[in-house]
C-alpha cells in the first residue's frame, strides 16, 4: 500500500477562520486552545489543483463562518467548479443580505448549531447567542428560500452537541427542526471534553438511551432525518420505529407542509414508489446482483475504526496545515510550503494509512468518538 499513489480526496474541510463571536461552554475556545486568525486567500489558492477531483467542500472550523470576509469569494469559486459546498454556523449572523446571497449562489448545505430547544438552556450553553434571534434568522433564511421556491440549496439541518446537561432536549429539537423546515433534520454529535467536566455521555449510554429512543421515534413519525445516534454511543440499543398507516400518512403531510417546492417533492415520491415496485417485481440473478461477494469465515481479525478519512478526506486548517482529520492535531505538511499532491502522497501519510488498517492504530483514532469499531481480516 505504501508505494501506491492515493487518488485525490473526494471531500475537503477548509477552515476559514478561528474567530468566533460566542463562547459556548463545550467549545475548545473556552480554554484558550485556539488563537484567532483568518485563512489567507493565497492559502486557498494553493488548493485549486484539488477542486476538479473533489465532490464536496466544507467551509468551517473552530470559528464562526460568517465572520470571514472572504467567505463569499470562496463560495463563488467553488460553485464555479459545480462542487457541493457545506457550511456550519451558529446562526447569529444570518442577516437579510447573507441569506439572499446564500440562496443566490446556491450553497448546498447549511447546518445551524443548536444545543437546546429551551431558550434559557440554549442561552446558557451558547454564551453570547440569543435563542429567539437565532430562530428568527432561520425563519429569514427560509423566507429567502420560499421566495426562490426551493427546498434545496441550501438544505438545512440542526447540529446538536449531546451532553449530560442537555440530552433531554433532543426530542424537543426534533420538533423544532420540523417547525423550522429543516429538510436534513438533526445531526447528533457526542461531546469531546475540553475541560467541561462530567458532560461526556460516551461512557453513559444508559443516561442517553431514553431520550435518543424518544427522539428517534418522533423523528420517524415527523419525517425529520435524525443522524449520528451511533457515534460515540457504542452498545446503545435503539428501538425500531414501527409506524402505523396513520403515522405514514402523517409523515407525508409533514413533508408537504414544510416544502416550498411541492411539485418536485411529489415527483421524487412518485419516483421512489416506482423504484420500489420495479425492484419488487424484478428478481436479478446472481450475475446481475451487485456486490455479491462470497462470505469468508475469519478466525482472527484486527479491530479498527470504520473510517475512510485518510483516503477520502482532507482537512486544511486556517494556517494551511494539513491534518488527517478535523479532530486530530497530527500535521502532515503545510500547503504554503509544499505542493498539496506531495503532502497527500508523502511517506508520513502512507504510513498513517497503513496503521489505520493494522493492530497498531494511531492513538487519536483509538479514542475517537466519531467512528465505530469494526473487525477486518
Task: Please tell me about this protein's structure.
Helix 3 crosses helix 5 (131-148) and helix 6 (170-179) packs parallel to helix 7 (205-222). 36% of the residues lie in helices and 14% in strands. The chain folds into two domains: 11-242, Aldolase class I (TIM Barrel, Alpha-Beta Barrel); 295-376, no CATH class. The strands form two sheets. A ten-stranded mixed sheet has the order 7-6-5-4-3-2-1-9-10-11. Strands 8-12 form a two-stranded antiparallel ribbon. The longest helix has 19 residues, at 262-280. It is of the alpha/beta class. It has helices at 41-45, 71-80, 96-105, 119-125, 131-148, 170-179, 205-222, 245-258, 262-280, 309-312, 340-344, 347-356, 363-366; strands spanning 11-14, 56-59, 84-89, 109-113, 155-162, 186-190, 226-227, 302-305, 313-316, 321-323, 331-334, 373-376. Strand 3, helix 3 and strand 4 form a beta-alpha-beta unit. It contains 13 helices and twelve strands.
Main sheet record: 10 strands, mixed
Strand order of the biggest β-sheet: 7-6-5-4-3-2-1-9-10-11
Relative helix content: 25-40%
The low-confidence runs, each spanning 5 or more residues with pLDDT under 50, are 286-298
The coarse silhouette is globular
CATH architecture of the largest domain: Alpha-Beta Barrel
The number of helical segments is: 13
Name the structural class: alpha/beta
CATH C-level of the largest domain: Alpha Beta
CATH third-tier fold name of the largest domain: TIM Barrel
Instruction: Bin the strand percentage.
Output: 5-15%
Classified in CATH, the superfamily of the largest domain is Aldolase class I
The tally of domains stands at 2
Question: Mean of residue pLDDT?
Answer: 88
Series of H and E elements: EHEHEHEHHEHEHEHHEHEEEHHHE
The count of β-strands is: 12
Radius of gyration: 22 Å
Termini Cα gap: 16 Å
